[in-house]
Amino acid sequence: MKTKSTINCMHFLRGIALATTFTVLFGGSTGAQNDSKPLLVCGVAKTQEQEPVKEKSEATIGLSYFKKADGSKIAVALIKAKNEQRKFAPAKNARVGFYAGQGKEQKLLQSLTTDMKGEATLTLSNNLPLEEDHSFTIVARIENDPLYQDAEEKIHLKDVDLKLLLNSDDTARRATVFVTETDKDGKPVPVKGVELKFYVQRMFGTMPGGDGYTLSTNEKGEASFSYPKKLAGDATGLITVVVKMEDNDQFGNAVAETPVKWGTVLAVDKNPFPRALWEPSAPMPLVLTICILFGGVWSIYAYIFVQLRKIKTEKINA
Amino acid sequence: MTNDNFDLKKEIAILEEDCLRPTRTFGRSTQIWVGALLVVIGWGLYCFIHQLSHGLGVTAMRDYVSWGLYISTFVFFIGISHSGTLVSAILRITKQEWRRPITRSAELLTFVSLCFGGIQPIIDLGRPDRIANLVIFGRLQSPLIWDIISICTYFAGSTVFLFLPMIPDMALCRDRLTVVDSRFKRFKKWLYTFMAIGWTGTKSQWHRLEKTMNIMTIVIIPVAVSVHTVVSYIFAMTLRPGWDSTVFGPYFVAGALYSGSACVILGMAAFRKLYHLEKYITPRHFDLIGRVVLALTLIYAYLNLNEYWIPAYKMATAEGHLLSDLFYGSYSKVFWTCQFGTVLLPILIMSFPKGRKIGPLVVTCIIIAAGAWVKRYLIVVPTLLHPFMPIQEVPAAWSSYFPNYVEFSVTAACLAGIFLVITLFSKIFPMMAVWEVAEGIELDHDKKVAIEIREERVITDETELARIATLKNGQVTPTASLNETL
Q: What percentage of chain B's residues is helix, strand, coil (to nearest 5)?
């Protein structure tokens, strides 16, 4: 006679054997299948539950700070992670935490997810926690992301002010920029030796203003650049002067821009064949052509109708 | 001569009877046929209501392919509407006598295919209730408005063109058919009286009818050509690979004539068989129209070569991607089947007299019609799937297209609608222009009489010359003298 434990053991082994047979016959849950589509086995749907744990990709963070011409400030984190070819490529859908301050005083500003380009952009408020020398620290961090390994990048910068002075009557077309920072007492102090680049805004980007368009500020925090006379402006001769401070170790990126009438007036030739579809009304030759052609045909139809009426009335008269 | 007159009258009476007979019956097989068509139409209507209530999302169309089976069908139906113009107007204007028994079916095919072709773009709209806005706020510089104007103009013209030769027949039906006990007698009587517009066959009425028909025959040809040219403009005036072509206008017109004339042959064969019109629509008619289809297929093949060979030689970036897909990509099987199976093979078949016999010709025309429909699909869909800006950041399913059951059902309902209208028309009106065919019989008879008189004269002359020759002791040979006389 079999004991109860022997019977249980036999049932267990039979179950394992059955399960193994099913797995071999119908491609069960073993093996490296990543999709979790339900698999129909003998009319019963079962979910492939055992997915292999995917290894997290190694990630890096590139953190930049920009001060725009209107005074608004943004921090941009560019996340790159190793792809299947073991090369760093922009990583989408990575969760990035932006923090302000250092050490224990660090404060979470916002958590963002990277876009298709692997970028997460945070607009910074004006009341960032500042240190004694009016500098500030921004930290971007990947923490516990399911796809990417933890990573961190920190920038420590000071706020800077770019003041662009232009005179539209200035025949020398001189653009002067004053660069100042704020000292411990909160007073503006000129910054010496900051590299600035002088550009002109164009439709798809900025164009260097001319030869030697990169200058450094003097001890007064001042840099001047003379724009050439023959710069193409718009229909009123307006150009937009753009001065940039790019990737500065102390201040990051900053821009100042001002429109000024220094350009040559762009005389736009009237297009003899404007795109009619965009015009409020159809071109007269087109209207006339359609009216004549189809008007003619419909007039003939009308004539035919008159003839049919005559056929009918002839009978009545008869 | 009295005997001749008697025969002619008898023949015309037989003709009238043969033409009017189908309008008196609505047999069991017709009832089943109409019932089956109504089922298909009902299902298609249900699918269309489903599409209306749930939006175009229930179809397979998505952001990139927004013109799918519906617009392909629109182009195909508008194409076969050219049949009436070709067979009726062109053959009428060139005074081809063999046209007489087949003009009515060709004109009817034009009318019906325009009706159902015209509604395809409305079916394709997500909000068809806003169709009036296209007219109210339409911009004359848009090819879509040109299309509406030209299709409406062609539809009006085709209706008139179908109606004009029907007037004497309606009078005949009014006078003859209602005498016989038939279904819907009162309705038919009213309809025939209304459509006969008081026709009594006076000399003045005949004069006016001939005048109006001549005018319409001339007018309808450019209108028909304009319609399919403008349909091609909807594509060609869009900056897209595959459509950016200057040859599209004539290419569409040639394609329309080729598929339309093939459909006319199918109609001819069907009515000949079903309504026992073998006496009037003879194998000679099939041979002659087969030659016309052959000529049109050759023109179409030439334009096809231009349409694909020139861009294929250059293989410009976006155009190259599209052509690669057509030549050896996902559409290659369908594309080459269309080119060889429905263009080159029909040319080969119809080049031989045996290929223009009724059976082979009907099979060839079925292939041509099906091929023309698939070709329209190949013009519309692959181009939409190959835009200049690459398809990206959309679900993978959006980058391919194959019509689903909703589109197939609605399209099948439209096709069934065409068959239904043709069937009902043939059960109310004669499917041959009785007076035109009678006129043809009279002309044939006159010709025969003229030939007989001539032969009699020749025989008399020969006898006379032989007598003279005998008198002159065989100095002159009668044949030589006769030739000189002639």
A: 80, 0, 20
| Residue of A294, A300, A307 with shortest CB distance to B208 | A307
Looking at residue B292, what DSSP letter applies?
H
A231-263 pLDDT, tens digit per residue, is 889 888 899 999 999 999 999 999 999 999 999
Distance CA B432, CA B274 (A): 13
Q: Contact B208/A283, CB-based, under 8 Å?
A: no
The residues of chain B scoring below 50 in pLDDT are 1-3, 478, 480-482, 485-486
Residues A256, A164, single domain; the answer is yes
Of the candidates B429, B434, B376, which has an alpha carbon nearest to the alpha carbon of residue B252? B376
| Cα dihedral B308, B314, B320, B323 in deg (nearest 10) | 20
- SS3 of residue A197 by DSSP: strand
Q: Which tens digit of pLDDT belongs to each residue from A272-313?
A: 777 776 777 888 888 999 999 999 999 999 999 999 999 988
Residues linked to residue A254 through DSSP beta bridges, in sequence order: A67, A245
Cβ count near A33 (within 10 Å): 15
Is A310 within the bounds of a domain? Answer: no
Task: Identify which of B142, B157, B212 has the shortest CB distance to residue A307.
Answer: B212
Query: B141-156 burial, b for 16+ CB within 10 Å, e for fewer?
Result: bbbebbbbbbbbbbbe
Cβ contacts of B153 on chain A, cutoff 8 Å: 294, 297-298
CATH of the domain at A246: 2.60.40.10
Q: Please tell me which of the candidates B149, B208, B209 has its beta carbon nearest to residue A294.
A: B149
- Position A295 in a domain: no
Contact yes or no for A48/A30 (Cβ under 8 A) = no
- Tell me if chain A has a CB within 8 Å of the CB of B140: yes
Cβ <8 Å between B153 and A298: yes
The packing angle between helices B203-236 and B248-274, to 10°, is: 130
CB contact (8 A) between residue B141 and residue A304: no
The dihedral through the CA atoms of A108, A110, A114, A119 has a sign that is negative
A32, pLDDT greater than 60: no
Q: How far is B371 from chain A (nearest CA, A)?
A: 33
Work out the pLDDT band at A54, boundaries 50, 70, 90. low
So what's the pLDDT on residue A200? Answer: 95
Q: Cα separation of A72 and A181, whole Å?
A: 16
Residue B180 near residue A291, CB atoms below 8 Å: no
Contact A294 B150 (CB under 8 A): yes
CA-CA distance, A111 to A306, in Å (whole number)?
79
- A312 and B223 within 8 Å at the Cβ level: the answer is no
Question: Which ranges of chain A does DSSP label H, i.e. alpha helix?
Answer: 4-26, 284-317
User: Residue B167: what pLDDT?
Assistant: 94
For chain A, what is the domain count?
3
Write out the residue range of the structural domain in which residue A241 sits: 160-260
Confidence of residue A164 (pLDDT cuts 50, 70, 90): very high
Please tell me whether the overall predicted TM-score, pTM, comes out greater than 0.80 for this model.
no
Interchain contact A282–B (C-beta under 8 A): yes
Q: In CATH, what number is assigned to the domain containing residue A124?
A: 2.60.40.730
Q: Provide mean pLDDT across the span A164-183.
A: 88
> Where do runs of H (alpha helix) occur along A147-236?
none
Query: Domains (ranges, CATH) in chain B?
Result: 63-403 (1.20.1630.10)
CB A239 within 8 A of CB A211: no
pLDDT in tens, A59-77: 999 999 999 999 999 999 9
pLDDT of residue A37 exceeding 80, the answer is no
User: What residues have CB less than 8 Å from B141, skipping those under 6 apart?
Assistant: A276, A277, A279, A282, A283, A286
Question: Pick from B112, B99, B122: which is nearest to B158 by CA?
Answer: B112
| CA-based nearest residue in chain B for residue A304 | B212
